[in-house]
Design a protein that fits this description.
This protein is mainly α and 510 residues long. 75% of the residues lie in helices and 3% in strands.
Length: 510
Amino acid sequence: MNTWILLPVLLPAVAGVALLAASFWEHLAMGRSGKTDGELSTQMGKKLHTITAVVLVLTTVLALLVAWSGEHEVTLFYLMEDIPVYFHIDAVGRLFVTVVSIVWLCVGFYSFTYMEHEGEEKRFFGFFLLVYAVLIALDFSGNLVTMYLFYELMTLCSMPLVLHNGSREAIMAALKYLFYSMCGAYLGLFGIFCLYHYCDTLAFTAGGTLDGAAASGHTGLLLVAVLAMLIGFGAKAGMFPLHAWLPAAHPVAPSPASAALSGIIVKSGVLAVIRVVFYIAGPDLLRGTWVQNIWMTLTLLTVFMGSLLAFREPVFKKRLAYSTVSQVSYILFGLSVLQPEAMSGALMHVIFHAFIKCALFLTAGVFIFKYGKTRVEELDGIGKQLPKTLWCYTFAALALIGIPPTSGFISKWHLAEGALAAPVGVFRYLGPIVLLVSALLTAGYLLPVTVHGFLPGRDWQAVHSAQTAPEKEPVGMLVPLLILAALAVLLGLFPNPVISYVTDLAATLL
């Protein structure tokens, strides 16, 4: 079984490289034959979708089988004599790879219809599969160095998804994404250099691996190193002050790429933070220190700031991007209080937010695909044309706000209860207050789309002169959207398996 760990990484990686090579040769053939891109896309589209669908399904099945078959490991090579690059499956990696696989499968099938109007499908699906492979490798990483290698590779492979349409705005957003990610990664690398000297091993071990004798007298340096890693890896998670790439990248990327960025790729920053704090440095190093106070302050500032900016933002996808800035810091706050129930809430929000936010971005994609609507005020009356899509949006929005009995209520309840039970001074009360204010702001920027979408008022005919009968909604886009919206609700109605899993995991780590 150990060598089977490689299959869910190699399969999408090889398929992705093959599609990129095919895209390159297709452009050469197009130049020689004089055929248009549209003609070649029509000829190859069905075959491309079939190949991608098969790879996605097989990879998802393999990843889940390998992840849930027990703890296994395989060494790839040795970077240095005492630093192997290897995969090891544990409870956290199992949770993250399950979420990644479900979302990637839904977004992939959604993309078959959506990308028909974006063009360059081979290139998109090539990088889409490559990113999937890298994310699985990241989740299966067995030590800090292996995780860092795939963390950097993920940035390079996902950047082309942002600049897909090749516009000036897309190029600038992709460069901003690259710059912020690299700056954050270098802060993480500084921390790795420091921890290497004071840890018994860089292999992920619950509770941490600090060598007490070696670290004695160097606590100040270790705290600075961990803070640098929290800020650096927090950049990918959209935590202040390295959050600005998110609202820049999301509006210009194709909606499936936005869903992947917002639902999954930002969680790689969360995974890196979990690995550093709970598997290498150890929570006892941070508990009660100035680093914990700074970390909690940055997360709560990001929660409030992201919600406020989303409330004021008129561009729909950019509004959802600011929402991601806020919501992912819910997770980081739950981790920062270093309390089991709060950590359980944070891990639950990793799962629930991935499904919810992907559903919201895929909804935005349907609006763009059908009508080219990108601003909130342009969505008035959209429920008359796309009722099923807007209902999916509504259920996902209610879950993100945290209205019971949706999944978002469950995770936010545990976050608030954990904060109130933690010995963190003023943050014990400040945290739940900020979370509550953020929830009200979330309702303020999400629900008006539903209200005005279904009840546009008498001015709707003047704004939309097209027919008022509902249009046929694209099935290939609607089915993945229905699945994600259903998960956002059903995981709140039947949360016990998730609660049991993350509670045991939090107890192990704390």
